[in-house]
Amino acid sequence: MSHFDLTGRKALVTGGAQNLGAAIAKALTQAGAAVVLGDVNAEAGEATAAKFRAAGAQASFVHLDVTDEASWDAAMPQVVSDLGGLDILVNNAGIEITSLLIDLDPVQLRKMLDVNIVGTSLGIKNAFKAMQPGGAAGQGGAVVNISSVAALIVFPALSGYSGSKSAVDRITRIAATESGALGYGVRVNCIYPGLIGNPMGMKLATDVVDIGLFPDAETAVGSVVGLTPLGHLGEQADMANAVVFLASDAAGFITGTGLAVDGGMGS
């Protein structure tokens, strides 16, 4: 059996209704895992889960606002019940708000920090509670957090986003240390995705044009490609495959670290 085979594994993917979250969930199912998609977008989440089931996967949807502890309290029993356990959590839910520091809107900044930092932290908290000995699942497991290449590089208009994703990196390492010291049996790692040509990535390109940093989106994207040794943007599948690796037995002696999936941009 391949070390990348996730047959019998049970995974929750936050922000799993669409875009990168859906791509990660798809890759997990293709590796054999059963998945629950946690999201605030019920229509998209149910549709994506149905599509996975039509392809032969075990998949379901749960409403989950990652910033709200009560939402986690309601969702986790359903997740464990639907899956028959839990041994993989992917903290994918996140938002990106582009702004120059001189134009900073504190309300928007707090919203982003709430999703990206608080949401990730609550995900780890609930994974630890479920996966630790004596928890609802109790078999240990793996948490994979989604940071960003923005945590590794300097790029204008991304101060808040970069700060939030840098925090995800630090939280990842501390969580891994706590898990090891307290015997939870949970590995915790993160990935640093590069720019992807999905709606979130393309919105960033248009946003930096709107605030006057680039003349057009093509130039903005070209500037990122120019900083990338491999010379092209990443694809969602690139990020999803890295998550499968970190969730699998192939990464069984890896914890408390980050994997750059950025074409060398953050090197």
Structure description:
It is a single chain. With 267 residues, this protein is α/β, with parallel strands linked by helices. The protein has a single domain (10-196, 235-261), classed as NAD(P)-binding Rossmann-like Domain (Rossmann fold, 3-Layer(aba) Sandwich). The chain has helices at 19-30, 42-54, 69-83, 106-131, 159-182, 199-210, 217-226, 236-247; strands spanning 10-14, 34-39, 59-63, 88-91, 141-146, 186-193, 258-261. It has a 7-stranded parallel beta sheet with strand order 3-2-1-4-5-6-7, sandwiched between helices. The two termini are 34 Å apart. The mean pLDDT is 97.
Q: Supply the CATH architecture.
A: 3-Layer(aba) Sandwich
Helical content class: 40-55%
**Tally of discrete structural domains:** 1
Q: In terms of structural class, how would the helical and strand content be classed?
A: alpha/beta
Q: CATH homologous superfamily name? A: NAD(P)-binding Rossmann-like Domain
**How does the overall form come out from the CA principal axes?**
globular
CATH topology label? Rossmann fold
Strands of the biggest beta sheet: in what spatial order? 3-2-1-4-5-6-7
Text of the CATH class:
Alpha Beta
Distance from N terminus to C terminus (CA atoms, Å) equals: 34 Å
User: Over the alpha carbons, how many angstroms does the gyration radius reach?
Assistant: 18 Å
Strand content: 5-15%
SSE order, one letter for each helix or strand: EHEHEHEHEHEHHHE
Give the number of DSSP strands: 7
For the report, how would you describe the main beta sheet? 7 strands, parallel
Give the averaged pLDDT, no decimals: 97
Low-confidence stretches: none
